[in-house]
Amino acid sequence: MKHLNIGLFGYGTVGRGIAQVISRAKNAHAGIGRICVRNLAKHTADTDHPELFTDNADDIFNDPNINLIVEVIDNAEAAWEIVRRALVNGMPVVTGNKAMVARHLPELIELQREHGTPLLYDASSCGSIPVIRNLEEYYDNDLLLEVKGILNGSTNYILSRVFDHGEDYAAALAKAQELGFAESDPSFDIDGLDALFKLIIITVHAVGTYVPPEKIFTYGIGHIHESDIRYAREKGVKIKLVAQVVKISETQFTMFVMPEFVSPSKYIYSVDDEYNGVVIRGECYDRQFMFGKGAGALPTASSILSDIMALRHDYRYEYKKMSYIDRPEYTDDVLLRIYARYTGTNLPALLPTVHVHEQYISKESNYIVADIRLRDLIECRAILDAPDVFIANIPQFFIDKDN
Ligand SMILES: NC(=O)c1ccc[n+]([C@@H]2O[C@H](COP(=O)([O-])OP(=O)(O)OC[C@H]3O[C@@H](n4cnc5c(N)ncnc54)[C@H](OP(=O)(O)O)[C@@H]3O)[C@@H](O)[C@H]2O)c1
């Protein structure tokens, strides 16, 4: 059996996890041949194998013994250069870099086709949960209606600590970082970008359409306040950061990332701490639920190992749904029901609501519960950045073909 000699880019949380997991996986017949990092001195001081490390990508690309690239660095643009170079040179790649994959997916698909070189990235969406390959293979038919879930472990950890344990938001964020769930730049998690990038990748494999990040409504948890938590508790629900892609008709789907009120009857209600949970809904089978660790060194490395093994068996994504004739089209012309809390910003005057169901005004804070078009939320996005504003989705049911 051919030995896989890995050129590893990145030796941080995930890179170190990969080194551990590979050393346990005898049937992978794989080893790490060379490791490229940003700051060489940081790594060569405390290792028995300083000769493995380099800060020059050429040392990997020019090494004739390297036959697989694993890319887990924390810089999306540098990662794009590395992965592009590998694919052009005919070197198969496994990556966990959701920001890079989500921003460059159309070009990455083209590069794979042009050079006949595979790229796998299941680790980029939900760490150890095998979402991508399942969507690509098992759910490769017309029955799929919706993929919805908690895709970001660090915001879920923070919300769990704040919501269930009454902890302070800043302390919960610091703990998430300390435990390695948070990205190097915490705003990436908090503002919903991490979940957005995962959702973009999931959407390509769920419905066969790439939607660029700037078109998708994304709102994070950074402005959550005690009054929002109190409101949710009174209603018997939890607030979770939820990403979803959902067919709203035979011909259209929509997608967005925002905090959502989740009732106890939902699978994702009990997805707490750093865990991720993904609900797949379809005709005939209703709902299926995948739960697991979406981040952290070893869970993410386990997914990278799974992709390495898949490559060993010549697996590659075929992107079959992208060539289906009846592909649904993305739309933001959809009505949502939104809880919107504010103090100074006059939200009822600024948001083009279709119908206001509830309005509450007090000295401390105010809120409305109103129907509003997703398109209008996108247009009013800047208003929602005001520090006194927080919004959450109150989920509506779009289509149910079985009833
Ligand atoms: N952490 C998770 O749980 C998780 C889960 C799923 C996916 N991911 C993804 O995996 C990737 C890595 O995450 P991480 O948490 O392991 O990050 P990290 O702990 O910050 O480590 C990043 C590594 O990248 C190296 N690096 C940065 N720029 C580089 C460059 N231009 N060339 C070579 N090496 C470079 C750094 O080198 P130095 O050590 O010398 O600074 C460091 O070793 C990210 O794309 C992230 O989104 C992470």
Quick structural summary:
This protein has 403 residues and is of the alpha/beta class.
Q: How is this fold's topology laid out?
A:
Blueprint (H helix, E strand, L loop, with lengths): L3 E6 L3 H12 L5 E7 L3 H5 L8 E2 L2 H5 L6 E4 L4 H13 L4 E3 L2 H18 L3 E2 L10 H7 L6 E7 L2 H13 L3 H10 L8 H4 L2 H15 L9 E2 L7 H10 L2 E10 L4 E11 L12 E8 L3 E8 L3 H16 L16 E2 L4 E8 L4 H4 L4 E6 L5 E8 H6 L10 E5 L9
Helix pairs in contact: 1-12, 4-5, 5-10, 6-10, 7-8
Bound molecules: NADP nicotinamide-adenine-dinucleotide phosphate (NAP).
Description:
With 403 residues, this protein is an alpha/beta fold. The protein folds into two domains: 117 residues, Rossmann fold (3-Layer(aba) Sandwich), CATH 3.40.50; 238 residues, Dihydrodipicolinate Reductase, domain 2 (2-Layer Sandwich). Helix content is 34%, strand content 25%. The protein contains 14 helices and 17 strands. The strands form three sheets. Strands 7, 8, 9, 10, 11, 12 and 13 form a seven-stranded mixed sheet that branches. The protein has a six-stranded parallel sheet with strand order 3-2-1-4-5-6, sandwiched between helices. Strands 15-16-14-17 form a four-stranded antiparallel sheet. The longest helix is centred in the first third of the chain and has 18 residues. The chain is globular, with a radius of gyration of 22 Å. The model has no long low-confidence stretch (mean pLDDT 94). NADP nicotinamide-adenine-dinucleotide phosphate binds next to helix 1.
